[in-house]
Amino acid sequence: MEKHQNLNHFSKFFSKLSYLKNNSQFPYDVTLFFDGEEFHAHKLILSCSSLYFRAIFNGKFTESHSKRFEMNGFDREILLKVLHYIYSREIPYADEDISEISKAANYLQIKSLVDACDEYMKRNMKSKYCIAWWKLAETHPLSGVQQSALNHISCNLEEVTRTPEFLELEPVEVKRLFTDRDSTIQHISLSQELLFSAIMGWVHHDPNERKQHMGNLLELIKTAFISSSFLNTTILKENLLREDIGGAKWLLANFSLQQSYNPFLREPIELYPDAEQPNFVIMDRTNRCLGFNTETKQLFNLANHPRAQGYCAVSYKEDVYLFGGKRTRTALRYSVGTNNWETIPFRCYFTMHSGVVANDSAYFTGGYSCFHRVWQNLVCRYDFHLAKMTQGSTMLMRRASHGSVVCDDCLYVCGGSNRTVDSIMELALSERMDIREGMWRLLPHMKSTHGDCSSAVVNGNVYCSDTFGGKTERFDVRRYNWETVATAPGAMGSIVTHNEKLYRVHQSGIAVYDELEDSWSKVIEYDFDTPTVAVTNI
């Protein structure tokens, strides 16, 4: 059967409808009231264009049989334009009213008008309106408008963030704008300095009310992409950072400075004094890096470390090395002399492993293989002179999150965890390998399990201490047995040795162990966030 389609019929049809709307001689069956005015219309025509009107007039509502219908909550000019569109399929809209037209079309469920507004906004995206259109797309189903707005903001960040629409955003909206999973801002390294300027510009628009949010918003910035010139010419000259505790903490936590500001002492302090050298390099999961001198008991900032969690830290000569870690494939080296981090061209595929240095080599044991996704019993040796990794004798047990030390040319591994088919088992087992022989032997059973721990050597004895609870044991090498000692203070801590003294660095500070008294005493108090410690050879 042949069908005939007259394309001109549709344009003529809507032309007749427009004439019908404006001609009072033709009967109407509903009157819309809004803003003190009335508009005569036809239920059939309204229902054909709008799912909202269709539900009202054809449903079980009192309005279904009424000839009067109130249209409250609509702007008069916007509603007139929408009604004109229903009768003519034409609408005169501009940048300044497209958002309100889109809202009305969404409310009345006129899909063709919603799509038309969608296309208009994507085609005419401008800095003046992109924030308003981005907010609109968050709450209304506009295909592609939100991404188009974010792309425009990313490419015109400086211009957009000077607009009144941006400066009037709520704090949660500012954060949401710069953390949107579709936003390209977080992937453009050069924009991080603009991002700082944008946040501070927003804060300065109402500093008394907004500076309380400053520290939280500044955490959005990837400080690794901030240049030293921008730091010196812009960030350090920003007085609000020094007046607010959140801003001051962000500044201290993210930048290694010769001079900075302590908001608690209200006076300048040196973060890396020339007279001080770090005996401990303390790193936490916020990428903060601090130095600690055991003689002066002073703590000071070092250059931040660009490393994810799960890495292993070892010291060789005056440098600290980080190997492995989550979502990383390189190693890092920190020079105490230059206070600088650099990448080592070496690929690492493990995490939650343990490392220790002996005879110009680092020995890495166990851990979790990010490549094979299994707990390991591998032992790898990294030669610092050759910058080469080789595989050694495998351990008797697969283990991760364990402690390791070297004592009298023997490599000790203690505790840790081992994954079974359906659970993770905490270990109370330790083993030892004579580096000269390459043979592993089990040691006597430990007094208790240590699922996540660290190890250190003091006066020829091996210590093992829990990360979370501080439960500590000592292996007497001469007597060849484990014995329980005083529980170390603080949670999320690890033990290290310096000048034959045992220290524990934990989330609330640093403590030292007295072997004769079998007790721990506080050295300093400080808030660390899951610290990892390396002892320098200074």
UniProtKB/TrEMBL annotation:
The keyword Methyltransferase is annotated on this UniProt entry: no
BTB domain boundaries: 28-95
Pathway terms, separated by semicolons: Protein modification; protein ubiquitination
UniProt xrefs under SUPFAM superfamilies: Kelch motif (SSF117281), POZ domain (SSF54695)
Keyword Ribosomal protein among record annotations: no
InterPro entries, sorted: BACK, BTB-kelch_protein, BTB/POZ_dom, Kelch-typ_b-propeller, Kelch_1, SKP1/BTB/POZ_sf
SMART domains: BACK, BTB, Kelch
A UniProt-annotated Pfam family: Kelch_1
GO molecular function list: actin binding
PROSITE patterns: BTB
Keywords (A to Z) from UniProt: Actin-binding, Kelch repeat, Repeat, Ubl conjugation pathway
A GO biological-process term: protein ubiquitination
Its biological purpose: Probable substrate-specific adapter of an E3 ubiquitin-protein ligase complex which mediates the ubiquitination and subsequent proteasomal degradation of target proteins. May have a role in synapse differentiation and growth.
The protein's name in its UniProt record: Kelch-like protein diablo
Organism: Hermetia illucens
